[in-house]
Amino acid sequence: LAKYLLQLANASGKPLAEGISFSLNESQQEIASHIGTVREIVSRTLHKFQDQDLIRLKGRRLTILDREGLEELL
């Protein structure tokens, strides 16, 4: 999931003071299918990333707050 989010940021992210922001145009189910897992894992992992202050998710707007932290998970 970290790799997928970084790919989306590279493709369509806009740099902001706090990080790189982009719109998640896919549902969690679609993301899960894309990366070969189930929706529950995507949901749980997104919450974990938020708890670790790696990302911020508001609706469909995702901001990567700690790019290096996400890259370390690869």
Quick recap of the structure?
Helices cover 51% and strands 22% of the residues.
List keywords for this structure.
4 helices; alpha+beta; 74 residues
Structure description:
With 74 residues, the chain is α+β, with helices and mostly antiparallel strands. Helices cover 51% and strands 22% of the residues. The protein has four helices and four strands. Strands 1-2-4-3 form a four-stranded antiparallel β-sheet. Helix 2 packs across helix 3. The termini are close together.
pLDDT under 50 segments (min length 5)? none
Helix content: 40-55%
What class would the helix/strand composition place it in?
A: alpha+beta
- Gross morphology is globular
**Rg (CA only):** 11 Å
Strands across the major sheet, in which order?
Answer: 1-2-4-3
Q: CA-to-CA gap between the ends?
A: 9 Å
What's the β-strand tally? 4
Mean pLDDT across every amino acid position: 97
Largest sheet: 4 strands, antiparallel
What percent strand? 15-25%
Topology:
Elements lengths: L1 H11 L1 E3 L2 E5 L4 H8 L3 H13 L3 E4 L2 E4 L2 H6 L2
